[in-house]
């Protein structure tokens, strides 16, 4: 058995996975630290959710095994949600060997109902597990998630692109959009109650496609904190901390900038 | 040909309205068969091929009607078959949500044959108010009655009690998002299984410990590929998942008994009964793949 795990309270996990599934297929990578789900598109957007080991009641990976495979997120999230809002179910996951299906056993806690699923897995070809975090470690701002989500949602929804600027001097943090309807701009000073950490060594300002940023907005609704990272290359990183009862899970999002700096 | 029925009990009127709403979820058209002791609503499969009932709903006259007069097509065949729009019936009867004293249903001829619903509204004013709806109907002639005969099967391999319909509905709704066919299977020891199989997922939900009313697998040659469960004799049939769901969401009845019967590889019958008041049967034939 390459990987097996058990989790009982996974409503938040389900919600988060559904919110990040902007594409059907995701790479699952069980590691010693926890289970990681990664979706990417055209090497320009990558979104990952981490379910840390401590959220599972049982978690085991074969010694020295480097496990990763691809599955359909649509199917996986439907299976997690098989009892809807009722039943408070628990799930056992298992992955025997390369090429084997991912097996799920879902048990209803009140009634004697068991659901078993076998989800076909594909090889996770060319999925280098390098850390993008190093590429955007120049500036960092940590926000209260509600505020940032609301600001982003209130920006012109039809906008084509969004420029995110960080500046050691006022106005510190700026979001501006351009689109058919015109331009909009929001400044958030570092003194704002919603900013808990502001580390900016050097001005950075990059333009991103707004439809990419929208992909992360859905899951930001579940987040408690959001850290925004930027670096020299224009890569934008967002890290979301999501509380689930006493524990926390994480979502990471990376997006490359549009050509030319904003 | 004459038909006239009167309902005065408020809760019975509500039941009648709920049935009409349920029927309208099943299909656009239905056939109402009026006989001396029972009223039937029959819904035919809309697929091509020979007409055959998909849903069969039976109402005892004595439970619903306080007054009931019927003069059928002939003395020998004292019945009437009418075809009409379920949506019109449901919409007209939705008036019963208000405070209605009585509901009269009759067959009339106003330019064309109609099922006329007369509802006497209860109002505080001294003058009473009446609400009349005419639903155009087509009277089905004797030679087509055969199309609406009750399907009789007595070769079911298994009849098993169904668990809580709400739970099944939730599960099957998720399944519908992944597949359009559903395998319904049951074993002798009372395990009911719903399964979907696609090229990316196989998902089965098991409900063990259900009452088995009958199990007759003796004559059946099981040549299926369920080799892992060879010791566990199993009867199954693959049906259209949408039609199956329709049954679960169509009629919201309380405290009813539900039985699932399967002819291996041929069909599934779902039977739902509120004793004395209503019975509903759904006939789902095996999907040909």
Automatic annotation (TrEMBL), chain A:
Belongs to the rad1 family. Transmembrane segments: none annotated. Keywords: DNA damage, DNA repair, Nucleus. It is found in: Nucleus. One of its GO terms (cellular component) is checkpoint clamp complex. Its main location: nucleus. This is Cell cycle checkpoint protein RAD1-like Protein. Coiled coil: none annotated. GO terms for biological process: DNA damage checkpoint signaling; DNA repair. InterPro entries: Cell_cycle_checkpoint_Rad1, DNA_clamp_sf, Rad1_Rec1_Rad17. Pfam families: Rad1. It comes from the Eukaryota. Signal peptide: none annotated.
UniProtKB/TrEMBL annotation, chain B:
Pfam families: Hus1. GO terms for cellular component: checkpoint clamp complex; nucleolus; site of double-strand break. It comes from the Eukaryota. InterPro entries: HUS1, HUS1/Mec3. It is found in: Nucleus. Keywords: Nucleus. GO terms for biological process: double-strand break repair via homologous recombination; meiotic DNA integrity checkpoint signaling; mitotic DNA replication checkpoint signaling; mitotic intra-S DNA damage checkpoint signaling; nucleotide-excision repair; telomere maintenance. Belongs to the HUS1 family. This is Checkpoint protein. It comes from Tribolium castaneum.
């Amino acid at each position: 058995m390459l990987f097996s795990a058990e989790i009982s309270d996974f409503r938040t996990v389900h919600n988060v996975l559904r919110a990040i599934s902007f594409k059907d297929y995701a790479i699952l990578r069980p590691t010693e630290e926890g289970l990681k789900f990664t979706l990417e598109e055209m090497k320009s957007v990558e979104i990952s959710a981490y379910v840390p080991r401590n959220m599972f009641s049982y978690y085991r990976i074969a010694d020295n095994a480097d496990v990763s495979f691809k599955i359909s997120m649509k199917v996986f999230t439907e299976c997690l949600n098989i009892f809807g809002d009722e039943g408070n179910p628990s799930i056992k996951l298992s992955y025997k060997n390369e090429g084997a299906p991912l097996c799920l056993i879902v048990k209803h806690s009140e009634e004697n109902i068991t659901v078993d699923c076998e989800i076909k897995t594909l090889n996770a070809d060319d999925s280098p597990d390098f850390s993008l975090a190093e590429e955007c470690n120049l500036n960092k701002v940590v926000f209260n998630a509600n505020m940032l989500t609301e600001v982003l949602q209130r920006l012109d929804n039809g906008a084509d692109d969004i420029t995110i600027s960080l500046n050691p001097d006022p106005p510190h943090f700026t979001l501006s959009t351009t689109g058919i309807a015109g331009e909009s701009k929001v400044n958030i000073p570092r003194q704002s109650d919603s900013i808990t950490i502001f580390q900016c060594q050097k001005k950075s300002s990059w333009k991103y496609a707004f439809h990419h940023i929208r992909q992360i907005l859905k899951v930001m609704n579940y987040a408690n904190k959001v850290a925004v990272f930027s670096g020299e290359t224009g890569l934008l990183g967002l890290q979301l901390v999501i509380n689930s009862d006493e524990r926390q899970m994480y979502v990471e999002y990376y997006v490359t900038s549009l050509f030319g700096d904003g | 040909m004459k038909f006239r029925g009167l309902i005065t009990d408020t809760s019975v009127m509500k039941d009648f309205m709920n049935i009409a709403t349920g029927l309208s979820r099943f299909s656009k058209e239905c056939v109402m068969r009026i006989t001396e002791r029972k009223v039937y609503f029959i819904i035919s499969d809309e697929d091509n091929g020979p007409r055959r009932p998909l849903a069969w709903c039976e109402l005892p006259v004595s439970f619903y009607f306080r007054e009931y007069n019927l003069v059928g097509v002939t003395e020998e065949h004292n019945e009437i078959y009418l075809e009409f729009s379920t949506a019109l019936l449901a919409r007209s009867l939705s008036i019963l949500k208000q405070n209605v004293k009585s509901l009269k249903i009759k067959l009339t001829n106003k330019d064309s044959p109609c099922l006329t619903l007369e509802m006497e509204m209860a109002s505080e004013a001294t003058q009473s108010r009446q609400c009349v709806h005419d639903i155009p109907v087509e009277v089905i002639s004797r030679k087509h009655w055969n199309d609406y005969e009750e399907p009789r099967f007595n070769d079911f391999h298994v009849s098993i009690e169904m668990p809580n319909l709400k739970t099944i509905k939730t599960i099957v709704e998720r399944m519908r998002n992944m597949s359009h066919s559903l395998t319904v299977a049951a074993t002798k020891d009372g395990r009911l299984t719903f399964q979907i199989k696609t090229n990316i997922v196989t998902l089965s939900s098991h409900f063990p410990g259900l009452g088995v009313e009958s199990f007759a697998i003796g004559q059946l040659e099981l040549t299926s590929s369920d080799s892992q469960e060879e010791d566990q004799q199993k009867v199954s049939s693959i049906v259209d998942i949408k039609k199956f769901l329709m049954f679960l969401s169509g009629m919201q009845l309380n405290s009813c008994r539900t039985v699932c019967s399967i002819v291996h590889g041929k069909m599934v019958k779902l039977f739902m009964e509120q004793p004395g008041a209503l019975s509903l049967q759904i006939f789902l034939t095996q999907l040909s793949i």
